[in-house]
Amino acid sequence: MRESQGRHGAESSSRKGRATQSWNFLWELNVKHKLKHFIWKCLHGILPVNAVVKDSNKGEGEISNGWSLAQKGWIKINSDAALQQKEGLAGWGMVARDWKGNVLGAWAIPNSSCSNPKLEESMALRAAMVKAKQQGWRRVMFESDCLMVVEEINREQTNVIRSVVLSDIWKLRTKFDECCCTFTRRVNNSVSHTLAKMALKLREQTEWKDVFPDWLLELGQADVAGRRPSFM
């Protein structure tokens, strides 16, 4: 009994320590308090979450509509854009994970100008490709929740509005050994979406590599497990 109580006490202390560390990091971010509290609530289950949908015919470990892993040996980068058109601001969010779901890098990039949503999504994806190239990753899957952008990239069709951005994307694709662009639903793109919304409040780019804050790792794990905060 005493051993059990000791374990529970140690686990409780560990959880409290991680919670304190997460809050300290969030408090130091140059973002509005409202966004800080929102992230905090997401991490601690205070906000309602989308339940993991399981069909009775599926195996116990199967998840419906969850974020999917990349192929073995590949890197997957999800990107998203958020806009505040009245304020003329946009933000891009990106998260890179390996084929096991481990977070390799994350970026929140503010854009001091704001265009239409499709152009911002295109520029967020282009920025993700630039980051991948800088990291030296050779086999990369880029995933966006903007279907029209993904379709135009894969068809290699252009138009006046996004010709320059798409041309850059097509050129960047040739810099990788293997590269593909895929579509995912917004509900499966929650980490990059959160980072994009955070970027709206930043004055300069924020980058995480090697060492990641607990709240970012927990969001990434929730994404892989299909436990997604309902903030959309």
UniProtKB/TrEMBL annotation:
A Pfam entry, by short name: RVT_3
The cross-references to InterPro entries, in alphabetical order and at most eight, read:
RNase_H-like_dom_plant, RNase_H-like_EbsB-rel, RNaseH-like_sf, RNaseH_domain, RNaseH_sf
Q: What's the source species for this entry?
A: Coffea arabica
| Protein name, per record | RNase H type-1 domain-containing protein
Residues forming the RNase H type-1 domain are 78-199
Q: Name one GO molecular function term.
A: nucleic acid binding
What gene is this protein a product of?
LOC113695555
